[in-house]
Amino acid sequence: MGELTAVAMSGGLDSSVAAWLLSRNGRPAVGLSMLLWDRSSENSHGRCCGALDLADARRVAGQCGIRHYTFKMDREFRDRVVDPFVDDYLAGRTPIPCTDCNTWIKFDLFLERARTLGAERMATGHYARILEGADGLELHTAVDRQKDQSYYLFELDQAQLAAASFPLGDKTKDEVRELARESGLAVAEKGESMEICFVADGVREFIEEQIAERPERFAAAAVGRPSRVVDSGGQLLGEAEPYYRYTVGQRRGLGIAASERLYVLEVRADENRLTVGSERELAARGLNGERLHWIGPPPADEIEATVRIRSRHPGVLAAIRPPARRDAGPGGGLLRRHAGAGRLLDRERTLRPLPRIEISTDIRAAAELCFDLARDLDLHQRSMAHTSERAVAGRTTGLIELGEQVTWRARHFGIVHEHTSRITAFDRPRHFRDEMTRGRFKSFVHDHYFDPIECGTRMRDVLEFASPMGVVGRLVDALLLDRYLTRLLKERNQVIRRAAELESDPVGANGR
Amino acid sequence: MISAMSAAYFDNNATTQLDSRVREAMLPWLGERHGNTSSVHGFGQAASGAVERARAGVAELLDASPAEIVFCGSGTEANNAVVFSCGRSGGGPGHLVVSTLEHPSVLVAAERLEAEGIKVSRVAPGRDGCVEAQHFLDQLRPETRLVSLMLANNEVGTLQPVTEVAAGCRAQGVPVLCDAVQAVGKVEVSVRDLGVDYLTLGGHKFHGPLGAAALWIRKGAPLEPLLVGGGHERRRRASTVNVPAVVGLGKAAELAAEELADRNRHLSTLRDRFEQGLAAIDGADVHCSESPRLPNTAHLAIAGVQAESLMIRLDMAGFAVSTGSACSSGVVEPSSSLLTMGFSEEEALSSLRVSVGMLNTLEEVDGLLAALERQVAELRQTAPAS
Q1: Residue B98 to residue B129: CA distance in whole angstroms
Q2: Which of A65, A189, A472, B220 has the lowest CB atom count within 10 Å?
């Protein structure tokens, strides 16, 4: 029957659209769901794994013309996701169960079940992208930065990525919802599920319920006992709720009067103690990581990278130092395949988002034309004549395509730069992305969006970059760079606008 | 693209396809004819006449008299009605005896009564899928209000010693419920021979429509209705009568009574052909093959093969079979019948049910065997026996 692809269906909007897209491409597909947390007696509408969600998944599969099956995996889910989640809270840590679920359930046991059905690949509704790089597969952020879920997939390995497929990675949430509406999917108007799927009320309540249900599994001496709150000097400030109800960085719910806002700096499970302090004290210069996992080959030495410490964190520049050869890293054990330790040093004093430039240019021309002009290397060279920018390697002329590279050489701030970009997303005429693969910047991602408007196209440029390394980085201050890039971009956009309007309406209202 | 419909349907213990002759009988009542059986006027009288004819058809199939038949919505409803009615009758301590093979509509109803303070004794079968009559009778107490034993098990298809159990119970004045939902239409069922007090059946298990079932109540046996609020069905089940479905049930019963011997032969020919064909598959083992069984049911394990994956592969290949008992969410659980028969969970999870119906053909059976052989081989390749 050809290569069968399984699509993981939760009954939500995203995985439903993923299934729809998959079923449209004409290759055999099958929808699979998991019953992870059977609380069928409780009202769990609108939550992952609820009986009604599974019914939605089944209904959508029917609309897609594919079969749908549900696997009961509640025991595995409890062992590998829920219990470690409770354990982490009881140890004073804040877990990310979605990552555990992706690593150990979805792209492991569930994938294995799919394989027994003859499926080679597992598609999901994740917003992330898998691209082929020089050293194997790479996990990339989604085109829709607001919805990006790549963070939750960080622990996947090469084999898992090879079997995974994310059809929504190059779509925006709006496009996904529009697709659902256009195709009349039953879940088109369904809301977002942002919470942890198995936690019905609050995390605190959940933890305490679990302990109460199975006291033999969770040895928690301090359940229900108030914690001691101290400042960073060890001075006792008062009492708060039990320690496992707090997470580092939390501000609310401390109930301690102080002249400035207090944040949780540290949670000590063994002493049922919280250390609190000011926002300044909260900022860290680095962290020691556990379970270090490299999707590609591990680097031999320290590397520079943009580091995110949670999904919604914009990222900071940091150096990652590989673990000193400590054999038994923390967090070892049966399930921790990629045990290890690493040290991460933050180069900034505080966690600061990456600089971002966004410019909109309205053009009286069709989106296709604007899209093509924006990827026209010849036009770009004309628009950048004042910096003597020219294409010197890769594709050097014509329209650049998905996966192609171009190396530009130009003079900025009196210094000759080479900047190599690759087209890493391409959805004509809506969007394409170029991403620096080599150059002076630490990172440089340029998204080009083309949204239809009443009288033509709104071209939207979204540029996210991390300051250049080396000599320019020291010479040029971030603000200056920001202004400089904005000006370059605006000049270039005017060239594109003029070319587009000239071509689509040579004698029109513009009057020339 | 996977086709939306299976090519061949081998899950007739779950439900069966409507017989075209039954559909013909129902169609007028889904079209030009209508009426409420309680109405005094001509429309009501016509509807009432059609329903009474159906009642006679069902009575004949069961060797019963029409006045003993109560139409209801499902086998579950009928079983619930009897368990609750008998379980809650009388004062003082109460007691029930049920087999662990019973359908959840009996078992869960009994659990409810247990929560109300009534004692429940449960009798398990052996690995042969049959309970022993004497074990059952040993459980009787002076305060026993009901004994429940199904005639044919829905999963493995084994027939139970209902006649012996009923005889023993009658001697002690204990009423007996016989859930005959799987048996009726496939084997001969005579309420007189069985000697029970209550018997339930469902039309869709023998090519009748969904939503029509019958409860036979021995003349003189009490029933406190489950549904109240109307005098329908001789005050034993309030609800406007579902005329088209009941007409269909009546027709299905008439046809089953006429054709029973032929049906029995057709079903057992197909089932036996299937079971003989299993010899070509390594490690295939038919459960309860030495026990008295329904002619249409084959329950088998294939060593080292997970039945859930096999069932899904067969479905994608166009053959509908079943595993264990599927709950409402469509998730596979190990067969509760096998577990209560003393099979391990692992054995239960590698078990598959193939139940043939009147519309199956020998060619389909051969097709199923070929698909089974191919899918088992592929499964053994992708997932080496664990």
Answers
A1: 15
A2: B220
